[in-house]
Write a structure and sequence with these properties.
- The structure is a homodimer.
- The first copy, chain A, is 34% helix and 24% strand.
- By secondary structure, chain A is an alpha+beta fold.
- Chain A folds into 2 domains: 139 residues, PurM-like, N-terminal domain (60s Ribosomal Protein L30, Chain: A); 153 residues, PurM-like C-terminal domain (Phosphoribosyl-aminoimidazole Synthetase, Chain A, domain 2), CATH 3.90.650.10.
- In chain A, the strands form 2 sheets. Chain A has a 6-stranded mixed sheet, with helices on both faces.
- In chain A, helix 3 links the parallel strand 3 and strand 4.
- In chain A, helix 6 packs antiparallel against helix 10.
- The first copy, chain A, is globular and about 65 Å long.
- At the A-B interface, helix 1, strand 1, strand 2, helix 2 and strand 3 of A face helix 1, strand 1, strand 2, helix 2 and strand 3 of B.
Chain lengths: 328, 328
């Protein structure tokens, strides 16, 4: 980390962030830059995503969760591309109110995830800001040369799969904003935790790499993201809403208020993998997901044409007021 | 660019940022991520630096200059490490007041520099923020394997070189803040422009790679940055202040107020290269700098010991109130 407050900053960085910079190429964060050599036969996958206090997280969220959310929203993209994490850079804008305890907790969350996801820190920058906390992460991963799994690539006949469960984070956000539904404590906690902390599906990256024809992570809502995948693949997607995986908690909320189904299908922050798999690969893909202990659901098929259609039980196409979540 | 406002954002990104994403690996910014293969025999150099409105630039600065400053502070690090730019990622936090005209100017500045420095865009993220504009850039460059020029590496007997001129940006900032010195229009304009827009020394990267024993860019002030280089190299640096290159404008300001010499030597935002060169390499280094049309000055020597000493004409060591500029 260079620039700004060398005295105070260098000391804090060495103490809090140095231990996360475990790769020799990071030079213990004592240099202007770091270096990395991608493994032979691979190329690097690059991604940056930022989160801002009051927009992507609540200012009162625990600092370790903020750090982990910032890293995980990026790791989720690497997973969807079939890439193995190699490391990350972080830019941190901090308002005056942030104290050392907050920074210590932030670094501790980052350190834990860097170890869990085998994704060490390669450098960063800490700047003072008159605005809210902003964390910008740039991640890089590796895939065998030429094999990054793209959004474009879905073909007619492919099946559409999604990992985990859809809508939990969007419903969790509604709870944070004061919504009140008849949920038990465990259901409530499930939705809240899914908003607070994404669970990126990096365990599934190899299966996606081996068997998917197209893939992306669901960050802006299943409906909108699938529409994007269909658009760049120049195909149509047809989804059976009844097969979209919903958690017990999401089902309970929707049973109480049917309009929440749209929230689940179009809300953001799922950080699940949405991918298409050619029929010939489906059995092996299923086995690979079981080996990776990651739940998947076959939610529909790809056909000729364009657009993404969500059909309910009677076959009617759903229409959404907002196809996709927007922070703007 | 993913996340947030797919409808509005995707449209703006395609229009403004798509043309900067000229590398095939950027997939025209239509995917979640990009890919890149470093040239054979090279490794990648990684760096991230962020700038914040009201801290690193003035909110009223032209948007194209803001974009260029954000990219150039990062390019400056690549240059100092002897690395050739390969590309960059950008994270952009925008307050509501920012309109399409601002964004168009921002993208136009970025596009110009991406072409000038051969450093195309590989992806990014645009988020809404209740705070000021923040631009976080992550750059990646290439160096022959194992040869990134580090801060550590200076040895007793090496000469200390610095490019261009020192202190202009710090004095320019003082002018922006209302300082009034007897300067002519050209001198004033020179200092102001050096604060507004860094001129990174990427033309010198190859010479640094070939001949320097240690190198860094001067971003937090010559005095403080040299002290850092000396510390990690475990050597002492001895500088003759009279040999530190000052522009006409800086000389005029200092002639008016001698205390501004300290501002020049310790102020930030120079974005010059500070490097050490072993005696055996000096002649070839000088020739290479001439070929690169980059002014350099031999400002002192490395010796045994520790710390960085700045000696004035009578040989006395200067003491600085603040060894280095801090935004905190």
């Amino acid at each position: 980390m260079s620039s700004s407050s060398p005295s105070g900053e260098d000391r804090l960085i060495a103490r809090f962030f140095g231990p996360i910079a475990t790769d020799p190429g990071a030079l213990g964060l004592t240099d202007d830059a770091a270096f990395i050599k991608p493994p032979p036969g691979t190329e690097m996958v690059l991604k940056t995503d930022a989160i801002v206090g009051g927009i992507h997280f609540f200012p009162e969220d625990p600092a370790d969760a903020v750090a982990q959310k910032a890293l995980r929203v990026n790791l989720s993209d690497l997973a969807a591309k079939g890439a193995k994490p190699l490391g990350f850079l972080v830019s941190l804008a901090l308002p005056k109110e942030i104290d050392e305890a907050w920074l210590a907790a932030f670094a501790s969350g980052l350190r834990e995830d860097a170890a869990t996801y085998k994704c060490p820190l390669f450098g960063g920058d800490t700047v003072r800001s008159p605005g809210p906390v902003m964390v910008s992460v740039a991640t890089f991963g590796s895939v065998p040369e030429g094999r990054m799994v793209k959004r474009a690539g879905a073909r007619a006949g492919d099946h559409v799969f999604v990992t985990g469960s859809i809508g939990d984070a969007a419903l969790g956000l509604r709870l944070r904003q004061g919504a009140s539904w008849p949920l038990d404590d465990k259901q409530r906690e499930h939705l809240l935790s899914r908003y607070l902390l994404p669970r990126p599906r990096n365990a599934l990256a190899q299966a996606v790499l081996d068997y998917a024809s197209a893939s992306m992570d669901v960050s802006d809502g299943l409906a909108g993201d699938l529409a994007k995948l269909a658009r760049v693949s120049k195909v149509a997607a047809e989804i059976e809403v009844a097969r979209v995986p919903l958690s017990d908690a999401a089902q309970a909320a929707i049973a109480h208020d049917a309009a929440l189904l749209e929230t689940a299908l179009t809300g953001g922050d799922d950080f699940e993998i949405l991918c298409t798999v050619p029929p010939a690969n489906i059995d092996r893909f299923r086995v690979a997901t079981m080996m990776a202990r990651t739940a998947i659901a076959d939610i529909g098929v790809i056909g000729e044409g364009e657009g993404a259609v969500f059909r309910n039980r009677d076959g009617a196409a759903m229409t959404f007021a907002h196809a996709s979540f927007s922070h703007f």
